[in-house]
Amino acid sequence: MTASRVLVLNSGSSSVKYQLLDMRDSGRLASGLVERIGEQSSRLRHTPLATGGESRERSEPIADHDAALKAVAEELAKDGLGLDSPELAAIGHRVVHGGKHFTEPTVIDDAVLAEIERLIPVAPLHNPANLTGIRTATALRPDLPQVAVFDTAFHTTMPEAAARYAIDVETADAHRVRRYGFHGTSHAYVSRATAKLLGRTPEEVNVIVLHLGNGASASAVERGRCVDTSMGLTPLEGLVMGTRSGDMDPAVIFHLARVGGMSIDEIDTLLNKKSGLVGLCGDNDMREIRRRIDEGDERAKLAFDIYIHRLRKYIGAYYAVLGHVDAVAFTAGVGENAAPVREAAIAGLGALGLAVDEELNAVRGDEPRLISPAGARVAVAVVPTDEELEIATQTYALVKR
Question: Is 285 a residue of the active site?
Fold first, then answer.
């Protein structure tokens, strides 16, 4: 039997998310999460999807990523899905930052590892954890292809006019300062799924993708290729997010340092962890913000209005970038579940051919669906993202070649 399984690993600084998929039918065999790695209160939650069994939990100290992946392997083995299985074709790793160099999924070797390591200064929170996961998985299965799928890869098709910042070119090049974009696996998956929903190929449609979770980003996808995206050198730029500020006058940083006496690290923490919705109203859960608005909370309403204002600006900007838009697709936790966000973001954009049907928008579901009125000039869609499937699909296609 040809090996058809792919294990997808998403290694964070203190966690490992995983899914095991069978690429013959894209079916999920198992999934799970190891969290609080390195603490006494570590926990592993494993769900054997292939057998329909109940989830299992282990609460025990897990010292490091090596111990975490060994624990994952033990849980998979209990279901007959161990890492030693001859049916395992490859392990696919989510890597957040691939810079300009990595434009597609890549089989990992020493040179690839070295380049991911060189990119740590522009992804200090993510790339080190991704490297740890790769090295641990390689040690467990050195004979197996390890594939890196980069968050930034989908956005490497942006033209220089979109990717360059207007600063001194030599300084920018010396320090790799440019707009890279993130959430690329989600934007790639959702843009293709949106085309399929419309009964067309990706090469036939222009789509604005709105990935709205705790982290949020927008992209302009022209005939299957990203031509602009809202995140930049780091995931801080762009939309208002759960705890990140998004777009802001860079001089605010100088002002806070000179007048506020704040250090660079303090400003970094402020903009990445204490801004966005949580900075505006104390909550980064859209459900809680909407509840507070319903109770007349003005601070929550202002936070929501600022969030929507920025979102509408990007929809309009990317409409201009694309010239012609076939669909706007909402995805990720907020995009898929918060009907008031979708309604408010599209309200008043009828001149652009955009509208939301109130009844369709209120429907909840796990499948891609249209929420625009019948006959609308531009489709508005809700498309659940599936980054794990995207990583597995890219990984399997590469190892088959």
Answer: no
From 345, 349, 369, select the one nearest 359 (Cα to Cα): 369
Please report the beta strands in 36-156, taking only residues with DSSP state E, as ranges in sequence order: 43-47, 56-59, 88-95, 106-107, 146-150
Q: Are 217 and 229 in contact (CB under 8 A)?
A: yes
Which residue, among 15, 325, 394, 368, has the nearest Cα to 184 in the 3D structure?
394
- Strand (E) or helix (H) holding 208: strand 206-212
pTM of the model: 0.92
Of 308, 105, 93, 79, which is closest to residue 210 (Cα–Cα)?
Answer: 308
pLDDT score of 1: 45
The identity of residue 350, as a single letter, is G
Catalytic entry in 25, 79, 84, 151 = 151
- pLDDT one-digit tens code per residue, 194-230: 999 999 999 999 999 999 999 999 999 999 999 999 9
User: Phi/psi zone of residue 121: left (φ > 0), alpha (ψ -120 to 50 degrees), beta?
Assistant: alpha
Cross-strand pairs, 399: none
- Using DSSP's 3-state secondary structure scheme, residue 348 falls into coil
